[in-house]
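Final report, Chapter 2: Outcomes

The project's central promise was a pipeline that accepts a single protein chain and returns its three-dimensional structure in a standardized token representation, suitable for archiving and comparison. That pipeline is now operational. To close this chapter, we reproduce one record exactly as it appears in the project archive, with the input sequence first and the structure output second.
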Amino acid sequence: MLSASQRAATAMAVVLAAAASSALAQSPADALSELRRRPPQDEVIYFALPDRFANGDASNDHGGYAPEKLVSGFDPADPEFYHGGDLAGLTQKLDYIQGLGATAVWLAPIFKNKPVQVGDRYTGAASHGYWITDFTAVDPHFGDEAEMRAFVDAAHARGMKVYLDIVANHTADVIKYRECPENRCAYRNRADYPYTRQGGVDGQPINEGFDGRDFSRLQRPDWAYTPYIPAGEENAKVPAWLNDPIRYHNRGESTFAGESSLDGDFAGLDDLLTEDPVVVQGMIDIFGGWIEKYGIDGFRIDTARHVNPEFWQAFVPAMLERARVKGIPNFHIFGEVYDHDPAVTARFTHVDGYPAVLDFPFQKAATDVASGVVGTDALAKIFDADPIYKNGADTAAILPTFLGNHDMGRVGYFVKKGAPESSDAEQLARVKLAHALMFFGRGVPTLYYGDEQGFAGPGGYGASRQDMWDSQVPAFREETPIGGRQAPYSTQAPLYTAIAEMGRIRQAEPALRRGHQVMRASGDKPGLLAWSRMGEDGQEVLVVFNSSTAPINGQVEVEAASQRWQSVRGDCAAQASAPASYAVAVPALDYLICKSAS
């Protein structure tokens, strides 16, 4: 005989299957209209690197370049080069992505890149998409305009949104400096190398009339170094204004501290002079064009903290207005501010004007809690800081929450690092727990592609960009995924099925998407963690987690009116123990979800 929770889960699966069938039967226009009415907090985002997700068209593997590795950048056995994934492959795999409960797909940059960077410190290809030369075109390794349009249309027809990863801080590395053409130049600051002197305060006067504010008055770019464009690359960038060195800071390599964090070259990439009104309007025109042309639903903005606030104060409202005119009222903009301190990330919602930022503080706390290396109060403290965001809880509700990414590493890696002596079964349970923390807390759950197949990897940057198919990279082939190796794109992988269940539950319970969150229990050791999500109708959904390796029995405070309860997941008591007190029993490294019947 099925338990109450099993019966509830079966009924929910039937209802959601019917809903999914109905959604697919909608006309594309109806599906598009419905998805554009959804607020950002209703989404589940799936973040994919196109090059590593699916190869739908092998004819573009070399991107139309000569087939040599250091020309086209294609080498599927080298983790630093292109592997062949493309937009056609993503379109073909939308079923797989949607099966997880994902409602939006965030693509790593798909703009045309400088395919290969050859240097004395690093040689690699632009498979990640962040070395942009043509901001107006699709990179030929990924397809063309028609395939981009086909992908967006196919996603929209399913009721799925499309978010683009965009870059305004820098372009590909094209500009060189006469003073150090073979190596990265040390950063030269504004005080020692003002815009009004050539090569330093003792140099000849240049840029007469520049008042330190109106950057349109700059006429020469050699205030710190003497920049030049190598022969043959004079017109490498599109639009054409990007080829003028006067549009860049030209101060050398960022140390990621002080002013260099804003004005320095990011790992050698050409740092745009984002104080210049030509650059501001140019970027507005570029990315506004993508909204108008394809009906994009949102932007993740790379390197947000490395651009001056005044740029964002102009750019963000312009993008929201372009989207509004296009008929996209819920355009989701979130910036990358790589910092685990919510005081730092919140600043960008006040000063820079970001509607939202990626929730790096949540990422750190959630993976540490799930790994058992900290008490459950680490996550409670992150939620306690929600009022410091502009508009407080309303902004916190649309922060994309995540567990790992292409730069820092995967959740599986963090769990293995945090619990190195744990068994395979324990690692699987902890990664499931981490995803539950993300799916049922405030914010917008953001899955990193491949986590659902148990990919972990040996570390951060570059080591967390596995191929979804049978890879030719030795390190990727030798990895044993969490939950065991499955066939590529398996929908039966343990983490795929667990995440898909979470997606179904979240979709079925509006309070888990939109409900105000109230902390109920946490502690300074691994163990009990609980919060309630309060629905608009007053209904309470209680989510209880156990981050310890032993079962937990206890009482959790709830609303006094929440007397009768039913199970959403797990074994939930039918009655409150007393007014405002509810008994819970949570297995080790597991969670339960209970809903008040009142």
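Archive annotation: The chain has three domains: 4-172+278-510, 174-256, 515-596.
This record, like all others produced under the grant, will remain available to the consortium after the project formally closes.
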